[in-house]
Amino acid sequence: MRIRRQERRTIGVGHVILKGRTAFILSLILSLTIVFGCPANVIVADEGWMTFEEVKAAAYCVIDGDTGEVILEHNADARRANASTTKIMTALTLINDENYDPDRMLKVSKLAITLGDPNSARIRGLKEGDEIRTLDAMAALLIASANDVARVIAQNYGGAYGAIDPSNLNDPKKSQDYFAKKMNEQARMLGLKNTHFTNPAGFDERDQSHYTTARDLAYITLEAMKKPQIAHIVGMRRYRLPTNEKHKDPLWASMSNSNVLVTYGADMFGSQYFVRYTGVKTGTTPQAGKCLVGSGVTQDGRLIICAALGITLPSAHASNSWLGRAIPVRALMEEAAKRLGCPVIEDRAHLLSPTVPTLTKAPSIVPSDHSDTPFPNHSEQSNASASPGVISTVPGTTATNGGSGVFASIKALPVVFQVLLVIGLLAVLSLFIWLFVRIAGRGRRRSRSAAARRQANDFIAGLQVFEPYDRDDERQQNDTRRRLSYDRNDERQQYDTRRRQSYDRDDERQQYDIRRRQSYERDDERQTYDPRRQSYDVQDRRKSNLDPYAGERRRLRPPDQPWHESQRESRSRQEPDNRSPGRDPFDYRNRRR
Questions:
Q1: Which of 72-81, 99-108, 279-288, 313-322 has the lowest average pLDDT?
Q2: Angle subtended at Cα 293 by Cα 292 and Cα 294, rounded to the nearest 5 degrees
Q3: Least confident among 167-171, 320-324, 335-339, 504-508
């Protein structure tokens, strides 16, 4: 029965082990299938984003960058303040200036760094008397939206102060006004009739004389994006000014693009049509509200530009104005690409996979005469490079260094798939460990069983050497054991006989004691107190008190019997007892033999 129970227990444990092993193998296969069979990249779904119908803005205009055709518009011809989007025209006027030189050093005046609002965008480390290169000033103008740098550019290229005429350092305000006139002349050259600028930074004017329209701003942006240096700068995520003798810290003037379309990219915004966002500029003032001009390139190479003024931020992003203004512009650009019939990006795998940036030699600086410079296509714009000082990769691409190989592919996967991959690798490792332990344990068991079989064979061979047992010897041993048992029985019988004899003696003693008690009782009756025999003499009375046996006549105390003090003390002197001091009849210790 015990063997059967052990067999059943072993079979049950085997079933449990088999079930656990099967579940482990199935989970391993499932995890490996999920990890290696799933798509290596994520298809971004257009769910939860703001739609075109939900956009709320005071005015907007979306145009096709290739044809100049207006795709979407709302109050596109309404004159409005446009805040820092004015700096697009500032950069366009600068790069079209006949004296433009990207390596020209510009003087920083006290008026340039004196801003009324302490929270106004600026380069914090810029001080009076500093010098800044023209190309670096343009980057700070378009990326950091620095108002002090806008004044530095206008004052130096206005013609009455600074770099253009080093001998004329008297009136930076007048030179700044000259530059504003150049901006208005540039607008008239572009055929813009509803645009008028009074300052290069986009500050509000009390008389609202600084204004433009969403349509005019879209065409200003279209013209500015034709300039390779402007197109490259507005597509950069980060920038820093180079060091000099006064500023030796490499990060004394580091900046990030305020346009989150460029900062986050088309992948983060889940665009269904745009391969990348290429620019361009943000702006905020009390009169203008939240403004943003955005541009992007679709999968079929179309450039779409959107200018939105007075944007109402979504309730979900009311606390983040930079992100809140980008979401409506994204919705407008998505609707424009949809109406143009741009192909839908069904799988953004090639955008999520890591790339190795190629370092190309920087082209020569654009000459001062731009009339003969052909407008490059969008692919050429993406490879345009600024002069030294620009630290960024190609516009619209990842700023960090890419990688290749297995680790780069793993890094490109989402976090969920990375976790599943790690689980799958751990499962494979545990499977190999289990197999190794299983095989090694089986080999040990085989060696142990072989050793046990050898020991058993040796033991059996040793038993065969001995002669068979003699049956007579067995019988003799059995007889001896029987004799021993008989002797024990005799001893028990003798012991019982002795016990019976002792019992008989006890009975005799009891009978003898009974007879003695009866004799004592007769003596007691004879020794009964007889008051008539008692002497009434006083002396005899005293003697009787001293000797309780003095009055006895029939039986006297033997003379050789010792007097016991305990008996004397136990007897009362007032009531003498005439009984003889005999033994207690119930005392069996001192019996007479």
A1: 313-322
A2: 115
A3: 167-171
Beta strand 57-64 with 303-311 is antiparallel
Q: Which residues contact 168 (CB under 8 A, 6 or more apart)?
A: 160, 161, 162, 175
Separation CA 433–CA 439 (nearest Å): 10
pLDDT of residue 554: 46
Structure tokens at 91: 């950069």
Indicate the CATH number of 52-382 among 3.40.718.10, 3.40.50.10330, 3.40.710.10, 3.10.690.10: 3.40.710.10
3-class SS string, 56-98: CEEEEEEEECCCCCEEEEECCCCCECCHHHHHHHHHHHHHCCC
Tokens of 365: 């600086």
Parts of the chain belonging to CATH 3.40.710.10: 52-382
Q: How far is CA 210 from CA 85, 159, 194, 418, 486, in A?
A: 12, 22, 11, 53, 139
| Per-residue DSSP letter, 274 | E
459-463 CB contacts, 8 Å cutoff, 24+ apart: none
143-157, 350-364, 435-449, 524-538: least confidently modelled range: 350-364
Tokens (6 digits) for 252? 């004394």
**Cα–chain center distance at 247:** 41
Q: Is the CB of residue 189 less than 8 Å from the CB of residue 175?
A: no
pLDDT digits (tens, 9 = 90+) for 192-248: 999 999 999 999 999 999 999 999 999 999 999 999 999 999 999 999 999 888 888
Please give the C-alpha separations between residue 585 and each of 273, 504, 520, 526, in angstroms, as whole numbers.
133, 21, 7, 16
- Give the position of tokens 């004196």: 114
Q: CB 466: neighbour CB atoms within 10 A?
A: 7
